[in-house]
Amino acid sequence: MKGTKKLAWLGLLLVLPVLAQATTVTYSALTVRELGNFLMNLPTGFYAIAPAAAKNMMDTVDVFILDVREPNEFAGERIQGAVNIPIRDLPKRVGELPKGKPIIVYCKVGHRGSMAMMFLRGQGYNVQSISGGLDGWKNAGLPVVK
Asked: Which residues have a catalytic role annotated?
């Protein structure tokens, strides 16, 4: 439990800069408390999904694919069907995401994707982050659009 608390605090420190950039959104004490509760109770695997499992899910279920990298990274290569919302814009654009379907999020290596996943989970979204991000996806031999 002690390691989980340290990890939860680390996660909160990683998410706070994203939340702080949201100039048009105000977060209540309840939202902050709920985010803290969420981080304290992260399950094993932390809602990560292996690239092959993500691809299988994309092929069999209607999912929303979210790329949280910068637009220039997205323009270079991406997963087919992904929508680009840079992580710095996510708090003010969260309303663009569907609540009724699973979301698979990714970035380059997994850090921004994990932060986005934690933020979105705290907002009530059903979201998983691709382990290893786009690099993990490509290392698994899965296709990208260039």
From this structure: 107
User: 118 is in which domain, residue-wise?
Assistant: 45-145
Is it the case that residue 109 has pLDDT exceeding 50?
yes
Indicate the residue type of 41. Answer: N
In contact, 72 and 86? CB cutoff 8 Å: no
Query: Using CA atoms, how far apart are residues 24 and 127, in angstroms rounded to an integer?
Result: 23
Q: Would residue 53 count as lying in a domain? A: yes
Domain-located, residue 67: yes
pLDDT value, residue 33? 76
Give CA–CA dist 73/67, Å, rounded. 10
11 inside domain: no
Could you tell me the pTM of the whole model? 0.73
